[in-house]
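Single Protein Entry

Contents — chain, fold
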Amino acid sequence: MNTKNLVLMALLVGVGAALYLIVPGFGGGMKPDFMLTMMFIGILLFPKASHVFLLALTTGVISGLFSTFPAGFLPNVIDKFITAFVFFAVVVALKHFTHKLSVSVALAGLGTLLSGIIFLSVAIFVLGVNVPFGGLVVGVVLPTVALNAIAFFFIFPIVTQLLKRSKFDTAFSN
């Protein structure tokens, strides 16, 4: 693994953590998960299983540690691992199309939806947290999908342009 790649992934996770801490929770303690946005950017830039594993691990643990949701640590870790590897599989399958911003934004939105559903499913059905699934999907997950897609739309082109100018070797520099 390249040290420059690790540093960039750490910066993405750090920015995601800062956004995660700043944004207030709503709807039963859930909050929009901008860690996902940064994880998706990292996966698109470095589509390798080892990088995906590190991104999933770090974003899951950090999101879990700072979760305002009751018993949110384990659901966050499980959700990030599943979401990261499903997103990675889709990125690999659609590698010729992910260079288009519209496709990447759509994938980030769908990844956020998947993440929210997995998170709530693990929290409710595995840990037995007593919260309304449908209400939280409509009240928290769907607005988070919109917010993450909008954030991704603005952040991803900025990151890719900065990396192109710095001659950084990513999946988008080929």
